[in-house]
Amino acid sequence: MIFLRTTTFVTIFALAVSLSPAAAPVAQNVNTQDMDRSVKPGDDFYRFANGGWLKTVAVPAGQTSYGTSAMLIEKTSERVRNLIQEAAAAKPATGSIAQKVGDYYASFMDEAAIEARGLTPLADEMAAIAAITNKASLSAYLGATLNTEVDGLTANADHVFGVWVNQSFTDSKHYVFHLLQGGLGMPDRDAYIDPSSKMAALRAHYQSHLAAILKLAGVADSESKAARILSLEIRIAQTHAPDSDAADVFKQNNLWKRGDFDVKAPGMDWDAYFKSAGVADQPDFIVWQPSAVTGTSALVGSESIDLWKDYLRFHLIEHYASVLPRAVATEDFSFYGTILSGAQPMPDRSKGAIAATNGALGQAVGELYTQRYFPPDAKAKAQAMVADLITAYRTRIANLTWMSPQTKEKALAKLAALRIGVGYPDTWIDYSRLEVVRGDAFGNMRRAEAFNRSRNLAKLRQPADPDEWRIDPQSVGAVIMFSPNAEFFSAAILQPPYFDSQGDAASNYGSAGAGIAHEISHSFDELGNIYDSEGRLGNWWTAEDSAKYHAAAAKLVAQFDGYCPLSDLCVNGKQVLNENIADLAGLLVAHDAYVLSLKGKTDVVIGGLSGEQRFFLAFAQRWRRAQGETALRRQIATDSHPPGEYRSDTVRNVESWYKAYEITPGDKLYLKSEDRVGIW
Ligand SMILES: [Zn+2]
Questions:
Q1: How many angstroms is it from 214 CA to the middle of ligand 1?
Q2: Do the beta carbons of residue 264 and residue 290 sit within 8 Å?
C-alpha cells in the first residue's frame, strides 16, 4: 500500500467546445497569456507553453517553489474557510451536516468559553489516570486510548498504539486489524536517538515543554518528572522500526494471532488492553512494527506505574491542547510551532479551527464543498474521461512488447478490477449519530473522536469495501491504494486549471487526463507489480518481463541523464526513471483517450490552436513550476521526479506531438524515431 499525492497538476481551461471558434473568447479557452510565442515549440516546448507565466510569477516569501498545486491549495482553502464560516453564521437546522460543521468551528473559536472552563473538562480522564494501580488497569487505560485514525504511512500514532482497519494482504474480502507503533510526543524515532547536537538541543527543548505542560496542570516536581518522561519516550523510540522499513511492505505484513501477544510481547496485560479497546473478540492481527509492540509492552511491564501515569497526564493535556485554555495552546505552539516547525508568530486561531473541523468532519465539509464546487455533472464528465483512459490502457497493455502473454492476462484482469473514485464518494459517511454542541469545543472533539473510533472499529465486522474513500473531496490531491486495488482523485484536484467540466476537452485530457493516467500506470509498474487484481501481495511479473522492461527503460535513463539545467548539475536518469515512465505512460494513454473521446470527429480550433495542439500545451503547462537555484539543486539531488521542464519534454517521445506542432529535424528537441522511447 502506498499513498502518492500528485504534485503539480497544471492545465488550461476553456469554454464548451460546442461554441463556434469565432464565439469563443480566446483568453478563456486557452491560457495563451501564459505562453511565449516568440519561442519555437520545437526548440523549447516548456518555455513556449509557459514563458509568459515564468516571466511574471514570483515564489511567495517563505516558500521555496510555486506552481499550480500551491495556487489551488490556497484557492481551495479560501473556499473551504468561507463555507465553514457561512455554516457557523447561518444557524442551519439542528442535526444537519451544516449545523455540525458550523457549530464545531464556532465552538473551537469560542475562546471565552474555553477559558472559562479551564482544565475542568479533563477531570474525569485525570481521575481515570489517578485510579491506575497495576499493570491490568494501566493496560486497560492504554487500550481505551487506542488511536483508530492512522494509516499505513503513520510513523508514530498519537497514543501508545494505533489501529489501521484495512483489508489484509492475503484476503481482500475482510478488514483486518493492523497494529501500528506510536506513543512519541516528537514526530519520530530519530528525534529521540539521533546523537547530533541539533537533535540533542531539540530533546532539551522538548523536556522543557514537558515540564511546562505538567506545571500548567498543577503536577508537582514537574522538572524531574519531565526528565523521566523523556527517558521513557527515548526507550519507546528505541523499539520503533527505522524509517527504511516503512518502504518495505513485506517487513510489515506480520500475522499474529491473539494468543501470540502474550508469548511474543509480554509485559502488557493484553486481555485488559483489547477488552478496553473494544476488540476482545478480534482473532487476527497484522503487526506493522513487531519490535515496537514487543518493546513497548516490555516497558509496560518494567517501568513504574507512577512514571506511566505522569507520561499519560502529559499526553492527555497535549492531545487536547487545541481546545484547552490559551496558556496551554501557547506553550504547545512554542514547542510544536516555533521550535519544531520554525513558524512564528502564532497563526490566527481560525486556521486551527478550520483544520480541526476538517479533521473531525472531513466528509461533512466535503459534502458542502462538492454541492457548491463539484456538482454531479462534473463528476460524470470526469468519470467519462476515466472510462476513456481505461479503454486506452486496455489496448496499450494488449500491445505491449515487453510483457509476456500470461502477464498481460493478469494486467488486464487487474485493470478490469481497478476502482477509480473521482470527485467524491457515492455514499457519504453518516454523521447522524455524532452530536456537535455549540459552545463545547472539548466535548465536540471528544465525541468526534469517539464517533470515528466506533465507525472504524465497526468495519472489522463488515465486508471490506474497496470503494471506501481515503481522501477528503476538499483536499487537493490523489491517493493510490494498492491494497485494495483502488485510486481516488479529489474534487479539489479536479478543478481548473487542471480540469474544467464546462471547458475544453482537449485540455482536460492533456492535463488531468495525463495526471490520472500517470497514477494508474503505477498500479502496473514496479510499485504496483507486487499487488494483484484484488490488492493481495504477490508479484505477478515474470523475471523475463522485468528484464525486458528495464532494457526498454535504459533509453529513457540516457535521455534524462542528458538534461543539465546548470553547467555542474545534471538530472540523474536512474533516480527519476520510475516517475518518467509514469509520465510517458500518462501522456500516451491520455492522448489515445482524447482521440477516443472525439469519436472520429475533428475538434474545433480555439484561440488559433487545434485540439491536438491544446492537448500538448495543457500537458506542458501542468508541469510548470517557479523555483530558485537552491530548490532546483535539492530537487535534483533528492526527488524521484525531475524538474517540470523535463517532465514537459516527455512530448519528445510522442509521434503526435511532432505532427501537432510540425517539429522537424532542425529543431532542438527533435529526436530521431529510433531514439524515442515507448515502453507503454
Ligand atoms: Zn508518480
A1: 45
A2: yes
Distance 665 CA to ligand 1 centre (A): 31
Does 10 have pLDDT greater than 80? no
Answer whether residue 19 shows pLDDT above 80: no
Cα 132 to Cα 113: distance, rounded to the nearest angstrom: 31
Q: What is the mean pLDDT of residues 611-629?
A: 96
Q: Residue 381 C-alpha to ligand 1 middle, in angstroms?
A: 23
Tens digit of pLDDT for each residue in 153-164? 888 998 999 999
Is this structure's pTM higher than 0.85? yes
Q: What is the pLDDT of residues 527-539, one digit of tens each?
A: 999 999 999 999 9
Q: How far is the CA of 587 from the centre of ligand 1 (A)?
A: 13
Once rounded to an integer, what is the mean pLDDT over residues 502-523?
96
Indicate left, alpha or beta for 600 from its phi (over 0: left) and psi (-120 to 50: alpha).
left
What are the residues whose beta carbon lies below 5 Å from ligand 1 (ion)?
Answer: 579, 582
The residue written with cell numbers 507503454 in the block is 680
**How many angstroms is it from 5 CA to the middle of ligand 1?**
8
Identify the burial level of 607 via C-beta atoms within 10 angstroms of its C-beta, where 0-12 means exposed, 13-18 middle and 19 or more buried: buried
Cα 661 to ligand 1 centre (Å): 27
Distance from Cα 410 to the centre of ligand 1, integer Å: 22
From the list 438, 353, 437, the residue with the least C-alpha distance to 80 is 353
The alpha carbon of 646 and the centre of ligand 1 are apart by a number of angstroms equal to: 14
What separation in Å is there between the alpha carbon of 478 and the centre of ligand 1? 11
Tell which residue, 270, 452, 464, has the closest CA to residue 364: 452
* 596, amino acid identity: L
- Cell, residue 605: 480550433
Q: So what's the pLDDT on residue 301?
A: 97
The answer for residues whose C-beta is within 8 angstroms of residue 105's C-beta and 6 or more apart is 84, 85, 87, 88, 353, 354, 356, 357
Digit-coded pLDDT (tens) for 435-477:
999 999 999 999 999 999 999 999 999 999 999 999 999 999 9
Please give the distance, rounded to the nearest whole angstrom, from the Cα atom of residue 488 to the centre of ligand 1: 14
- Cα of 640 vs centre of ligand 1, distance in Å, is 8
- The per-residue pLDDT for range 368-388, each reduced to its tens digit, is 999 999 999 999 999 999 999
Distance from Cα 522 to the centre of ligand 1, integer Å: 7
Q: What is the crossing angle of helices 376-398 and 577-598, to 10°? A: 110
